[in-house]
Amino acid sequence: MIFVLLALSVLIFYLTRGLLPPTTALAAYITPRMDDSAKLSVARALGVATTSCPSYSAFVSLQGGCVVPLWGQYVGWLENALAGNWGLTLLPGISGTDTTWHVFFSRFPYTAELAIAGAFLTIIIGIPLGIVSATHNNKLPDHISRMVSLGGYSIPQFWFGAVLQILFVLYIRVNGSGLLSANSTVATRCVICFSGVVPGEIARYSGIPLLDGILSLNFPYFWDSVVALILPALTLAITSIGAISRIVRSSMMEVLRQDYITLARSKGLKENVVIYRHALRNAILPAVTVSGLLVAYLLGGAVIVEIVFSWPGVGNASLAAANVLDINFLELYVLVTAVIIVVTNLAVDVIYAKLDPRIRY
Amino acid sequence: MKASKPEESQSSDRYGGRADLKYALHLLRRNPIVLAGVTISVASVLLALLSPLIVNPTSWNQQPLNLRLCWNNPIVNWQIANVFNCGGSAVYPLGTDSYGRSLLQMIILAIPVDLEIAFEVVASAVVIGVFFGGLAGYKGGIVDEAILRVTDVFLAIPGILLAIVLIVVLGRSLPTLTIAVLTTWWPYYVRLMRSQVLSEKEKPYVERLRAMGAGDVRILYGHIVQNSIYPVLVQATLDIGSVILTVSALTFIGLTPSPLLPELGNLANQGIQYIFTAPWLILFPGLTILIISLGFNLLGDGIRDVFDPRLRR
Fold first, then answer.
1. CA-CA distance, B243 to B237, in Å (whole number)?
2. Residue A42 — left, alpha, or beta (φ > 0 → left; ψ -120 to 50 → alpha)?
3. Which residue of A has its CA nearest to B271?
4. Phi, psi for A49 (deg, rounded to 5)
5. Cβ burial, residue B91 (10 Å; 0-12/13-18/19+)
6. DSSP B96
7. What is the pLDDT of residues A235-290, one digit of tens each?
8. Residue of chain B whose Cα is closest to the Cα of A319
9. Other CB atoms within 10 Å distance of the CB of residue B156
10. Distances (CA, A) of B95 to A63, B59, B231
11. What residues pair up with A67 in beta bridges, in sequence order?
């Protein structure tokens, strides 16, 4: 795991710093009004220029001994990062005085909420679809569920999100004005205010709107968060619903052909018991193994979905960060995501061993 | 060419060229969905090849701004107050875009762009996968370990972000787009090929080849790869749709060489700004992506049915 994280940070560092001339690392930090000595001190602060570099023009012309070699820059960055100093972020709209760490983790709960909701929808829609498809093989429910899964697999997410927006804004009206609470001030107060929360503002304990709504017993805010979450979560989940239901279908069909199912049926058990108690336990295993990939997929897909729905999460910000080559934000984003993916894969292995006693590591 | 004999008999025993074709035709007759997949993918490739003949290939650069965002298709009525009719005698079946170009023409010009990138990415990923995956599976040991660790690194990062950073750094152009998507795609093929080779290399014919004095390169790339490549090719067909989705998602979020470029994601990107005033701008490019990607997925499913003996009933 440490190896993967280190290699990833090297990869991102090399991509953002190693392929372009060293002045591009400064581009977002310097303004035309700065004089050369100010520019040089920025370059030194970023660890790009050496302390012995005489002038900014010497740095620009790549004079010998002026530019810190790439590995030196990386080591400097790594020392800072390990000490918890992730520097300032360059995201547009944020003045450049906010730390990367703070910006990232104030946005991260939104992405987490979206990804968890997407995973939840994937499981509660995808798995039943697969089961129905397998138990009604080659009948109408099977055809419908296969079309849904194939469609989900082939649909461009950004387009699905946009179509949902068009449908719900232009053509489908729920009680005239939509579902969000009409009085926006209702949603901004905290009913039970713990310490540190200003009365009249939304209580932020976790940063996750749904959770905060429950914790502060602010039900209008909770309701608004639910409504705002439905379409993005569905958009995010549509592809993985297709993938999961396909996997469950094929494994369920294989399991249903086995002898122990025939035995269970011949014992006179109800069909539902046979399917949900006996067959599902084994049929779900392949779906568990791909759930590690699923998390990676949801986090990646969140970038697109967040952009389409203007969701205030880290995926949306990472595009902005990539556009200005904000190395601090990109590194933090990539490393946090990688930790999540690696940890999920580990958890999947453990759960798999629990679910399937035949497997021993 | 004595050494190739066991491999030939192996492959004809298991897959049998003519029997395959027969079975494929039988599948097509029995299963209309696979037939639809074949039709859509063949039609989209044909359309892509013929598109410069159907539409003037330079028309994407013209901007008749007086015709922007108009709609004169009499069958579909959007019931949006501010949709205005294109005057004149020319017909724009799918309306015009924000530059005044016919959307239908732009979509026809865009299909070859997307398909070309998709084919390039998938073909390169297969080549890389066969080479490194074959090497890892066949050699084992430290080579295997090294190649696997590298794929680990690439699989632990959301591919789309890696692609975004690559495009920003390397500059926005179609070749960069291809390289960026390829960078996120190849590890899957290496893994797939490796697992195939791992199970194939234990078979008796490999030992026989070795006893006959065949070299490693010849055994691996001449025989083992030939016998274990089918799942990779099926995956490649399925992935053409996914690559089109990824490429169009990247251009949709603005990583495009030129805002004028007719490319399906780029056209949709133009459309999202007018999503509530001119919904056709995002609807039809997206629908085109959906249909093409659906076609290749159906085709891939069909090919898998042909090559996977376990599914034969």
1. 10
2. alpha
3. A162
4. -105, 145
5. exposed
6. B
7. 999 999 988 998 898 888 888 888 988 898 898 888 888 888 888 888 888 888 88
8. B164
9. 22
10. 57, 15, 42
11. A49
Whether the CA torsion A303, A306, A310, A315 is positive or negative: it is negative
Residue B286 CB contacts under 8 Å (≥ 6 apart), including other chains: A156, A158, A159, A160, A162, A163, B264, B268
Q: How far is A269 from chain B (nearest CA, A)?
A: 28
| Contact assignment for B276 to A307 by CB distance below 8 Å | no
Q: Would you tell me how many other CB atoms lie within 10 Å of the CB of residue B257? A: 17
Query: Roughly how many angstroms between the first and final C-alpha of chain B, as a whole number?
Result: 36
What residues in A contact B297, CB-CB < 8 Å?
150, 153-154
Amino acid (one-letter) located at B113: V
- In this prediction the ipTM stands at 0.85
pTM recorded for the entire structure:
0.86
**Nearest-by-CA chain A residue for B149:** A4
SS3 category, A99: strand
User: Best interface-test mutation with A: which of B160, B237, B239 has the largest number of A CBs within 10 A?
Assistant: B160
Distance (Å, whole) CA B237 – CA A94: 44
> Which residue of B80, B265, B290 is in closest CB contact with A155?
B290
Cβ within 8 Å, pair A322-B265: no
Give the residue on A whose Cα is nearest the Cα of B188.
A293
Residue to mutate among A158, A160, A290, A295, with most B CBs inside 10 A, is A158
Using an 8 Å CB-CB cutoff, list chain B residues near A137.
Answer: none
For residue range A13-22, list pLDDT tens digits in order: 888 888 888 7
